[in-house]
Write the structure tokens for this entry.
Amino acid sequence: MGFAMAKRLLAAGHTVSVYNRTRSKVEPLAELGAKIVDSPRELRGHDIVFTTVSASDDLIAVCTGPDGLLDASGSPKLIVDCSSVSEEASGQVRAAAAKLGTAMLAAPVSGNAKVVAAGTLTIVASGPRASFEIAEPYLHALGRGVTYVGEGELARMVKICHNLLLGVIAQSLAEITVLAEKGGVKRSAFLEFINNSVVGSPFSRYKTPALVNLDFAPTFTPVLLRKDLDLGLEAAEEHGVPLPVTKAARGEVDKLVQAGHTDCDFAMLIEQTAKAAGLTLIPENVAVDDGLKKKSA
């Protein structure tokens, strides 16, 4: 994800330095003009630093750890975090940054590396308005839509709700596709109809190749989806909002994880649903449009 985002910033003509815990993952960016650094501390002198990590603890570590971005000896002017993390973790980092004179934007994204490459990433941002205006041109370079929702951690709530919808739709899509196939309809034909219907969406279309051809190379793992569903359920409990459908979807995602499906794509939900229905799925091996036509940066 971060690789694809850095690539778009480079293509837009920006000067980019990059850090990843696994250096080999970002070394190809050097050929495109990026400077590869060995520690987040080497980014302390930059005006703007984008972060994208898997979990709340990772964000805290990369920002406030011994070799993190924030230090009394020097810190970036602005941190833009594009991760899906808890409001509490984001607030903790924001407070630590403020003590050192560093502003912070929460700017979680909707999409994955393929979506970034296609130029269709969307971003929701919150934090100081002045900081958003500074970061806005760079955010627009990453995709097609940037929405500012206000101060503080409001963007975190938006992204949590977004990912609850993602989880519910993913499970529902698996269920109805299995039902249609057990009733005699090919998955490719059924999903073609759904994608062209009023209830179809960019999400249902770009997951269609995985559901039809059973290609579960990971774009977003069940482990990460379960983490986001848990964040949403915690927020719902805090605000007194019942989420029965989300709880059911979370249970199905947890079954995947407990069965050892941790490094695949969450589209594996269709296999689990089919097994429960006594149906053996076979890849259709047909060309399916995912709707992601690549757009230039």
